[in-house]
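Sample entry (251 residues):
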Amino acid sequence: MHAYIKMRMDQSSPAIPIHYNYLIQSAIYAALPADAASHLHDKGFIAGNRIFRLFSFSRLTGKFILDSKNKTIAFPEETLLVITSPDVDFFLPLINNLLTKNCLRLGKSVFNVEEVRFDRQLAEDDILTIRTLSPVVSYSTLLRPEGGKYTCYYQPGEKDFERLVSANLAKKYEAFYGHQPPDGEVRVRPLDRPRLHVTAYKGTVVKGYTCRIRLSGPRELLQMALDAGLGGKGSQGYGCVEKIEVQKKTT
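Predicted structure, serialized as tokens:
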């Protein structure tokens, strides 16, 4: 399920930090009932030794004013936030709260909610074309020969990117449904040149990519990509995607 939330930044509100993912994530948890937020944050959905929160969200889109010196961004006009999840029990109280309070607080800034639109996007067969609404993150944590760890990020088009994205979707499916996913791997083909985005989440540098992507594989896993996000760190504001309707050629 996708929720498209149109908002307008209160004129009296200060600009928000350029790296605002944590603020949106915190606002989402704050909009949930306390027990639901605590359960999702602390326990989530489990597959093996992995915990998944199974939601993702987009970057804020719309006209903006960037202050490079102070590292802040403001939105003088309407802005759009997209939140996705396969979990209806997550969506309903979240959206009900937003519509009741009519605002979303990002740190010290208030965004007034003007409209919420739902869209049930479906993976109808084994091929799905998507666009990224926030950078897709695919990475491995490796050991240095001299000791210590480092993070290696991959981009669309690389085999390790495809392998990790496919494995991640399978784990998300298992965590949500409680059983093994259907056989088959998800293939990933970028349709244009991936654009690198270097962002920060709570002081940690995160690298991700945006582009249009064609996925192929088990329909159930493609649906999970639409609903729970593609790649890692979805609940931190990465890997949010939406379906691109492909027009069929007529003869």
